[in-house]
Amino acid sequence: MSSSIFSAVPYIPPDPIFELTKQYNANPSLLKVNLGQGTYKDENGEPWILPAVRAAKEKIRTANHEYLPILGLTSFRSRATELLFGQDSDVIKDGRVASCQALSGTGALHTAGKILYRAAQAARNTIPTVYITNPSWSNHRQVFESIGFPVQEFEYTTADNSGLNMGCLTQTLTQAPAHSIFVFHASAHNPSGWDPTAEQWKAIGEIVKAKGLFPIFDAAYLGMTSGDFDTDAFAIRYFVHELGVESAVCLSFAKSLGLYGERIGLCAFATSSSTIATAVQSTLAQLIRVEISNPPAFGARVVAAVLEDEDLRAEWAQNLVTMSERIKAMRWALYEGLVELGTPGNWKRITEQKGMFCILGLRLEEVLHLREKYHIYMADSSRVSIAGLNAGNVRYVAECIDRTVREFRSR
Ligand SMILES: Cc1ncc(COP(=O)(O)O)c(C=O)c1O
């Protein structure tokens, strides 16, 4: 056989989280619990179609199937931008926002990275480092490395994962060269569940501004964290409105509207002038044209239909409360279960952390044991998606963790 032109292509192992879901789906056990993938499930363990989304789909059912504009559905872009920065914000009124519809949060990060790469190349012909937290969402490093950025991690949590490592964060920001890019989780840090307080965000913002750094806000959980979108958008708005820092925001509607498969998000740059915004937006248009020509319509129409209608917007606000409250209740249920069983370990952080995830602090062999013996699937790092818990399985999960911890720690 002639040698293949692909002979030097390496085998890349499958993504661990998607692999875990595959294993979970293939497991016939009735006891199985999926705490791996970060998708919200209702109290019956089923995917939840938000009532606001159900109603929005009804409203758009006669929509045609024509191409969207290159930058995306215009009503989606306007409404999502207003949602993000606030309707009456100066950055919108002054025409300083450049935006495009994106393929969910991941697509928005990719697009933001591509634009920043081009911007750095054109301005200085040097490529800045992208700083990401350690730990972070498993895709961050490869998204930015694939564009060509050097990526550097900094310790985000204390060594025992008992909280944010503000000292290291401050030091990293202070020592980073001007124009360095920092990927911040706007709310509900994945996976640690530790977010800076408002005061800490202010301190972070001051350094970012003073040092001429560039923030990318990964905004995958706005509204899901506290149950209120505006509250969760605090850091973004503080940087943009109060500090006047140029920023990128990569907004996903996967979690907040339950539109995981629709791949709908927004990539927005808050810039310092309308002239710059116009240039950035023209570059976005050219980038989208070469990469996907124009984005998919369905998810954008759903989001626009929700945001355009006062009643649906109010319904969505309620749906966000439902999701965030259920997650908080499950945090407490797991914590109380472990405490009641007297499970060795410090579990208080389960209730202190924010958002969909927490890291339990289990050893790899314990994680594997839970998977093999009890059909409970969590990431190797013992990161669990709290949204996979419900009244029907939380006691079982607590008991299995209890048995596993006792078994392994008595060895
Ligand atoms: C921190 C973070 N950023 C971005 C994403 C991207 O999600 P999507 O591309 O589905 O919007 C996720 C998804 O889990 C995430 O946890």
TrEMBL record:
One of its GO terms (molecular function) is transaminase activity. It catalyses: L-aspartate + 2-oxoglutarate = oxaloacetate + L-glutamate. Keywords: Aminotransferase, Pyridoxal phosphate, Transferase. The keyword Metal-binding does not apply. Residues 32-400 form the Aminotransferase class I/classII large domain. Its EC number is 2.6.1.1. It is an enzyme of class 2 (transferase). Gene3D superfamilies: Aspartate Aminotransferase, domain 1, Type I PLP-dependent aspartate aminotransferase-like (Major domain). Its cofactor is pyridoxal 5'-phosphate. InterPro entries: Aminotransferase_I/II_large, Asp_trans, NHTrfase_class1_PyrdxlP-BS, PyrdxlP-dep_Trfase, PyrdxlP-dep_Trfase_major, PyrdxlP-dep_Trfase_small. The keyword Transferase applies. It holds the Pfam family Aminotran_1_2. Homodimer. Belongs to the class-I pyridoxal-phosphate-dependent aminotransferase family. In eukaryotes there are cytoplasmic, mitochondrial and chloroplastic isozymes. This is Aspartate aminotransferase.
